[in-house]
Amino acid sequence: MKAVYIYEQGDPSVIQIGDLPVPEVIPKTVLIKVLAVSVNYVDTFIRSGRYKTQLPYPYILGRDALGEVVEVGNGVTQFTIGDLVWTNSMGYDGRQGVTSEYALISTERLFLVPTGADPVKLIGAVHSAATAAIVLQDVMQLLPDQTLLIEGAAGHVGSKLLWLAHKAGAKVVTTSNQRDFSRLREIGSSVCFDYHDDRLFQKLAEQFPTGFDQIIDTSGEIALQ
Q: Which site from 37, 64, 67, 162 is most exposed, i.e. has the minimal number of CB atoms within 10 Å?
């Protein structure tokens, strides 16, 4: 099968495109024919070695894929051949990536595409949506009466954080470029601040003197480890 892979971490010159064996199905796994793969900034962290994680070599790049089930292993009951499925947690922590014609996915990391969902839009959005859901539910354990500040709310993760937190009943305050204010208000921001404003933190302190229950910065400028 054709695949995009590396034999060592480094700059983009280490990326190769070539033929690798089709993965062999084992119990509790599903072989999918890959139909679409998203490209995320996090892929560059893993390929370059900036984010330290165990990788199998040759390592196939990518973590988010949409595909069709072509074979199921022993013990698999929730998927059948022909199902349209997605995964978004491959390509790190010892798991092989998915930028290839076929990919072998553990059943615990594979999901059916919901009826009525646009499959390509789904795989383009699911990485940031899953990140937002994990942060809000597992890390923050956000409560409906809490106030959340999202710094940089107009991006992929920021906008999903905003939408999900608003749906959960929290009061959400956002910072972004001023041109994004209208869209952020539409999806749940109660107050928008311009992050280019030199008086940003002074204004935040004035309007919210007791502070915030939770704050998240989506800039990506914080040390990953």
A: 37
